[in-house]
């Protein structure tokens, strides 16, 4: 058995090269046929068919559309998981490319098509490797990263992390050049709390507001007040963001509305800020609605906790990257992202690392995540397969595989 890192690396590169066309075709297939959160039925079927064709033991229908697959070594050893999310966003694809989405109102605008294609590539490469696997690899294909209830929290409740010692994942990064990987130890993403707020008034004729409680007027006051909560309650140097992304109310121009519904999100990086902001919001909403003779209801669906990357796994990833490629490949991320990632639920069960995979084309404008013109430089995909395969092998071989 060869346990020389350079020869394993060469074999992984060779296997990946022979699979590159297939990896890109798979990504394009997912890109053309995106499915929204919790509706990833065809996506799940495609994953199962590719995993079974590659000879992997696999389980589907987990929490609906979730899929897991296993590669088991002969001699026990540790188990490392790789997570790929599966869902698309309710956005129209605005790109003019042959692989643009064929489904109106759905698009892989967050790169989850790439995450699945890379994870499938890793499964095939590791399965074909001549080196007997010195441990086990579990592939977790997760529904619904983009909506609530989060797919990760549901899969964790269903037990997918049982027996898993560590977990890794990539997220594409359209601002990071292709060829680079973004790493950060500890806190990587914000804690995200959604809120759904109903402001109730009393309907009446538009000509006689004194007989009614105008929920639209009241919601407007509430909106101003809650945006101020972040300005007034968050501490300097501790980032916090509040955005109201949805506001629905009223039915007719000459009828005073009795109900307005608001939906928003609060992002913070510590629990204390979050508690202070939510307390302040409720105090203001209660005061304003009761002063006007209205009422309110507020709900917070299950929040998405912060991703906190394990420092020793990030060190391992950085060592593998620097010794097999070069230090230049690594971008050390100095700031926490105010975005959310439900990868954090897996980290409640085992240490893990979420890494940014650079997908920015060398020329041209950045196409941002969650936008209709989002796209990736597909050269990132085979590179992602080689990187992830080597991280997994290093983890499983540990000290037996000196760099
Ligand atoms: Zn997203
Ligand atoms: Zn995403």
Overview of the structural elements:
The protein has 403 residues and is α/β, with parallel strands linked by helices. It folds into two domains: 5-189 and 306-400, 3-Layer(aba) Sandwich (Aminopeptidase); 193-299, 2-Layer Sandwich (Alpha-Beta Plaits). Helices cover 34% and strands 24% of the residues. It has helices spanning 5-32, 41-53, 112-128, 151-157, 215-233, 271-292, 311-324, 380-397, and strands at residues 57-62, 66-71, 79-85, 136-142, 166-177, 181-183, 186-187, 191-200, 204-205, 240-249, 255-256, 259-268, 295-299, 308-309, 330-332, 352-360. The strands form four sheets. Strands 1-2-4-3-5-16-6-15 form an eight-stranded mixed sheet, sandwiched between helices. Strands 10-12-8-13 form a four-stranded antiparallel sheet, covered by helices on one side. The chain has a two-stranded antiparallel ribbon with strand order 7-14. A hairpin with a 3-residue loop joins strand 1 and strand 2. The longest helix is centred in the N-terminal third of the chain and has 28 residues, at 5-32. It is elongated. The mean pLDDT is 95. Bound molecules: zinc ion (2 copies). Residues 110, 112, 145, 171 line the site of one zinc ion.
Overall form: elongated
Query: Class of the largest domain in CATH?
Result: Alpha Beta
For CATH, the homologous superfamily of the largest domain is named as Zn peptidases
- Count of all domains: 2
First-last Cα distance: 17 Å
Query: Residue-averaged pLDDT, rounded?
Result: 95
Q: Which ligands occur here? A: zinc ion
Please report the number of helical segments: 8
Radius of gyration: 24 Å
| Sheet with most strands | 8 strands, mixed
The CATH architecture assignment of the largest domain turns out to be 3-Layer(aba) Sandwich
User: What name is given to the CATH topology of the largest domain?
Assistant: Aminopeptidase
Q: How many beta-strand segments?
A: 16
Spatial ordering of strands, largest sheet: 1-2-4-3-5-16-6-15
Helical residues, percent: 25-40%
Oligomer description: single chain
SSE pattern: HHEEEHEHEEEEEHEEEHEEHEEH
Model regions low in confidence, pLDDT < 50 over at least 5 residues? none
